Structure formats: C-alpha cells, structure tokens
C-alpha cells in the first residue's frame, strides 16, 4: 500500500482542487459556488486522473515537447471519456460544449482543452512539486488516514451510483407514459 500511497494522495488533492476550481468558476459565472457534479462529495475525479496520467508520462522521461503535447491531449481525453461514459451510463450530460466552436459531441471543445492544457502545464511544473513537498511532510499522518479516504471515496461512489440509478429507473417509468399521452 505504501508504493501507491503518494499517488492516492495526489489523486485526492487534485480531485479536491478540481472541485474548488469548478466551484470557483461556477461562482464567477452564476453567483453560486455549488455546481452539481457526478459525486456528491467535494471531489472531481477527472481532475485527479489527468495529473496522474501526466505524472506517469513525466516519470518515463519523455522529451519536453512530447510532455507539452500530452498536457493538451490527456486532460481532453479524460474529459471526453468521462463525459461519454457518464452520458452513456446515467443518460445525463454534466457539461455541454455543443454550442461552442470546435467541439466534439459536446464533451470537449478547443477553448476548454486549451484551458486544461495551461492548467496541466502549471500543475506539472508549478503545483506538483508543492504537492509532493506537502506529501513528504504529511506522509506519516497520511498512511493511517488513507483507508478512511478510500472508504469515503467508495461510499460516495456507491451512494452516487445508487441514487443516480434510482433516478434513471424513475425516468424509465415516466418516459413511456409521456410518449403515450401525445
């Protein structure tokens, strides 16, 4: 468990920071911090996955220009796959770029891909050294807390899936009636 410990720490920190980033963006645009996400808790797993994939690419000592290209591709790919899966499984689209130019199925668009690229580069070369430094200083406290964090993530995921699936079942019951009322 110790070898995965820093990566689970990074995932947790970046997922939480993603929640803060989206909430701040929503506060700026709509006046309210709370933006519905897939999970109920204060975490956005997409923001945890992309940095881990970028850290893996960085760890294998890829050339800098290739890392810059991956900093554009990986977050966009994570966002596209996440959006596609969420829409396919839960029949809901949590974000929609379909009204923007250069978009793909409403899941990604060039404008936000460029934002993610800038944030990814800043994350890899500015924020990650600080997050790693933080991990080194809290490592002794993190390791005993890690099972609780995994339990909380798992509970949030299970609760979210259960409540969202319930919502789908109620939609399935309502939709045929609406179609027949025509």
UniProtKB/TrEMBL annotation:
It comes from the Bacteria. Signal peptide: none annotated. The keyword Disulfide bond does not apply. Keywords: Membrane, Transmembrane, Transmembrane helix. InterPro entries: CmpB_TMEM229. The chain crosses the membrane at residues 6-25, 67-86, 114-135, 141-159. This is ABC transporter permease. It comes from Paenibacillus tritici.
